[in-house]
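Hey,
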Amino acid sequence: MARGKRGVMAAAVTVVCAVTVLAAPGMAFAAPAPTPTPSVTPGTTAGSAPGSAPATNEELEAVRKQLDTLYREAASATDAYNAAEERAEQQSTQIVALAKRIVEGQERLDELKKRAGAAAAAQYRTGGLPPEAHLMLSDDPGEFLDGTGLVLQGQRATKHLLAEMTRTQQDLKQYAKDASAQWEKLEANRKAKAAAQKKIEQRIAAAEKLESQLEKEEKERLAKLEEEAAYQAQTAWLDSGVLDEIDGTATEQGRAAVKFATEQIGKPYEWGAEGPTTYDCSGLTSQAWAAAGSAIPRTSQEQWKQLKRIDIKDMRPGDLIIYFDDASHVGMYVGDGAMVHAPRPGRTITIAGAGSMPILGVVRP
C-alpha cells in the first residue's frame, strides 16, 4: 500500500538525512556491519528444517547471486512488456484513426456517386444528341452557343467528378491495407506482451520461492549481504574520484523531476506500473519527467536509445542513470553520489548509491 501523508513526510526526512551523509567526503554510505558466519553441520542447506544449522555465508551469497539474476531477467522482460504495450497502444490509436478515415471516405464516395448519377440522368434527359443536331433544332443560334458552353462545363465537371471518385476509391483501398497491417502488428505485440508477462511471472515466482525457503535469520543475513555488495560497488565507484568531477547544477525542470521522484519514496515496486501508488523503475523516471513538463520514452531501454547521452562527470540532478549491459534498469540522479529508484519486486522506492550497480551510461531528458 502507498504511504499516507505522514509516511511521505518521514520518507522526506530520510532523504534529507541520506543526502546529508552522502555530501560528506569519503562517507557516501556507512559500511554495513559484517555478516556473521554461523557454524554449519555437514549436509545442511539454506532453508532447512527448524532446529538444523543455518546456511553458510557462501551458500547465501550463491542465493543472492541467483536472486539477482532472476530479478534482472524479470526487469528485462518488464522492459519488453512495457515496450510492447506502448506499441500496441500506438497501433490501436492508428487503427481507430484509419477506421475514421475509411468511414469518411466511404461517405464521400457515396456523395460522389450521387452526383455522378444526377449528371448521367441530366445527360439522358437531353437525349444525348450531338451538337450539330441541337444547332439544327434550335431557333436561336445564340441560345445554342450558350447551351454548348454549359454542356462543355458539365463535361469538364463530370470528368473531374469521375477522377475524384477514382482517387477516393484508391484512398479507401490504401486505408484498408494500412489498417490490416497495423492490426497484424497489434496482434504481434499482444503476443509479445503475453510472452513477456509469462517470463516476468515465472522469474518472480522462482525468486519468491527461493526466498521462501530461507529461515528468518537467513533472510536477515541475506539482506546484509545485499547491502554489503551495494556498499562495495558504491565505494569502488567513489574511490575512482568520479564524485570530484561531478558538480552539475540542476535545471528548474530537473529539480521538479527530482522532487516528484523523491516524493514517491516508500511506494512499492510493481512491474508495468506508472503510478500513482506503485511504479517500476522506468515508470518512476518517465512519470517524474512528465510531471516536470517533459515527455520521455516509457522504458529504460528506449530512454537509453533516444535521450541525449552525457558523460558521468557532467551529470546533474534529474539526469537518468542507466544500469546493466542490457539497459534493463534506470534510476534518477539526485546529487551527492546518490540516486532514487524503484529497485525490484518486494522492494519500495528508495535512495541508493549511484554506483551501487554497474552503470551503462547517463542520459538527459
